[in-house]
């Protein structure tokens, strides 16, 4: 039986029970990654030493207690993995190996996960596309299209079934955009829950997991946040302050009858606002994406929530503030790097950031205003907001880094303008697959909650997953799981 394509929960349970060994699981995944990486471009580094690490894990005395025992995970190439060079998609970054794991990587390893590789990201994680000097990542659902970005390879790897879990970062949508492009789940936590990336983009960037089920996503978030009460939040929409035990009913990967009753009877009864057209006039959102957001709201109404329509548009000044902040991040990220080794696109973004900074139009005041009170005022009395995750299907997988500023800005504004406000606000948000576009690609909806709302988001994701089950992997990545 091949364990490639199985969920993280299933793999960890099988390793804990001795039904399969960690080296067998990791070896099978490494073989699959090696065979298919040319097709997807998901990995910059494939860690063959992961097999030795799996053998060492198999000898641990606490193997039967590890929540992610033997689970292969992929890490975005801007998060430190000890002994690996972190390039962040750029030839201008340091070639020195990381001396230590980032805390989230250390937590994954402590929980029994095995790091099988570093995933592709565009240069300095600055764009919602998947190309860099190291190659072009491709969407497993349609190899001619980008998987989104900047957590490009992480989304592609999970969608292709190469790993059950991956980590990415999200500064202006860099988890939610690729997750929506590739039909997987992700959650950008709010500040303070998960240790942030080294470059936190003025407090906007967070590290989060990607997975194919709400249960896997909750478990991964629980591990990297060091809060195992989140592991069962997908069942009830709340933290359960109890000791999490491997192989408990909640670990089975299926919603318990008690949890189903809790969706209607317990505290998990939310006021949900659906904004199918949240952008200011002048922005167009694909009608199929708008319809998916509305349908997601109806599914949540059926699950017992109060659902209202939100006709209000985001304020017109917020878009320019988000773009200026993007440019400001580019200027910050390139400071101290050899500009001759940067891509044309990166140089242009950084130059725009420096110019706007010199005239005090760098978006800082708009971000402060939105974060301080305007986001809360606009959000109103809802517990959760549902919107489309994208405005249009993802563009072509191409070398956008060799193109100029205008072409790159326009493609972003056309297809991925919906996520940035919630980084500026520093609120938790996630992307959930919900339906299929007529072009054949998955459709993602975005769920947003005020600070502390991560358990609500996980619970709603599980309800949407139940209401409209989505294919866990792209069709080309499916594997027949036989004994």
Provide key terms for this protein:
483 residues; alpha/beta; Amidase signature (AS) enzymes; eleven-stranded mixed beta sheet
Task: Note down, in words, how this protein is organized.
- The protein is of the alpha/beta class and 483 residues long.
- The chain has one domain (8-264, 364-379, 397-477): Amidase signature (AS) enzymes, CATH 3.90.1300.
- It contains 16 helices and 13 strands.
- Strand 12 (429-436) and strand 13 form a beta hairpin.
- The protein starts with 7 loop residues before the first helix and ends in a 16-residue tail after the last helix.
- GO terms for molecular function: catalytic activity.
How would you summarize this macromolecular structure in one to three sentences?
The chain is an alpha/beta fold. The chain has helices at residues 8-16, 22-40, 50-58, 103-110, 152-159, 176-182, 214-225, 233-236, 257-265, 287-302, 318-334, 344-358, 364-379, 405-415, 421-424, 454-467, and strands at residues 43-46, 72-76, 114-119, 131-132, 135-136, 165-170, 185-188, 206-211, 271-274, 306-309, 384-388, 429-436, 442-448. It starts with 7 loop residues before the first helix and ends in a 16-residue tail after the last helix.
- For CATH, the homologous superfamily is named as Amidase signature (AS) domain
- Largest sheet, order of strands side by side? 1-3-2-6-8-7-12-13-11-9-10
How many structural domains in the coordinates? 1
- CATH level 3 topology: Amidase signature (AS) enzymes
Distance between the termini: 4 Å
Low-pLDDT runs: 252-267, 477-483
C-alpha-based Rg, rounded: 21 Å
């Amino acid at each position: 039986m091949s364990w490639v394509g199985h969920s993280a929960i299933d793999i960890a349970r099988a390793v804990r029970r001795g039904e399969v060994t960690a080296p067998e699981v990791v070896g099978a995944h490494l073989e699959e990654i090696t065979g298919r990486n040319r097709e997807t471009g998901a990995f910059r580094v494939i860690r063959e030493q992961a097999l030795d690490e799996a053998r060492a894990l198999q000898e641990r005395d606490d193997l039967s207690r590890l929540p992610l025992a033997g689970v292969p995970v992929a890490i975005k190439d801007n998060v430190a993995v000890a002994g690996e060079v972190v390039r962040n998609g750029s030839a201008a970054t340091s070639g020195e190996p990381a001396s230590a794991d980032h805390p989230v990587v250390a937590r994954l390893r402590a929980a029994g996960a095995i790091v099988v590789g570093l995933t592709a990201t565009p240069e300095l994680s600055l764009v919602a596309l998947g190309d860099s000097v190291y190659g072009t990542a491709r969407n497993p659902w349609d190899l001619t299209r980008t998987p989104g970005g900047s957590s490009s390879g992480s989304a592609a790897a999970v969608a292709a079934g190469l790993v059950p879990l991956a980590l990415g970062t999200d500064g202006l949508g860099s988890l939610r955009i690729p997750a929506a492009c590739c039909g997987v789940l992700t959650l950008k936590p709010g500040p303070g829950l998960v240790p942030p990336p080294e470059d936190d983009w003025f407090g906007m960037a967070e590290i989060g997991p990607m997975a194919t089920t709400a249960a896997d996503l909750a478990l991964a978030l629980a591990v990297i946040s060091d809060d195992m009460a989140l592991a069962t939040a997908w069942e009830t929409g709340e933290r359960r302050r109890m000791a999490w035990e491997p192989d408990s009913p909640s670990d089975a990967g299926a919603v318990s009858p008690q949890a189903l009753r809790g969706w209607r009877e317990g505290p998990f009864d939310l006021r949900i606002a659906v904004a199918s057209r949240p952008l200011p006039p002048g922005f167009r959102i694909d009608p199929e994406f708008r319809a998916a957001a509305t349908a997601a709201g109806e599914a949540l109404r059926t699950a017992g929530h109060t659902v209202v329509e939100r006709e209000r548009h985001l304020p017109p000044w917020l878009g320019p503030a988000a773009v200026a902040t993007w440019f400001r991040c580019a200027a910050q990220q390139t400071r101290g790097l050899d500009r001759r080794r940067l891509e044309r696109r990166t140089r242009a973004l950084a130059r725009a950031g420096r110019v706007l900074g010199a005239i005090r139009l760098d978006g800082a005041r708009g971000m402060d205003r939105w974060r301080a009170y305007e986001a809360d005022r606009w959000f109103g009395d809802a517990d959760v907001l549902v919107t489309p995750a994208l405005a249009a299907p993802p563009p072509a997988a191409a070398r956008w880094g060799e193109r100029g500023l205008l072409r790159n800005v326009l493609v972003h504004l056309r297809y991925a303008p919906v996520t940035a406000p919630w980084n500026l606000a520093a609120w938790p948000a996630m992307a959930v697959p919900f339906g299929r576009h007529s072009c054949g690609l998955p459709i993602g909806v975005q769920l947003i909650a005020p600070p502390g709302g991560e358990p609500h988001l996980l619970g709603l994701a599980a309800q949407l997953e139940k209401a409209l089950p989505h294919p866990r992997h792209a069709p080309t990545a499916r594997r027949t799981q036989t004994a």
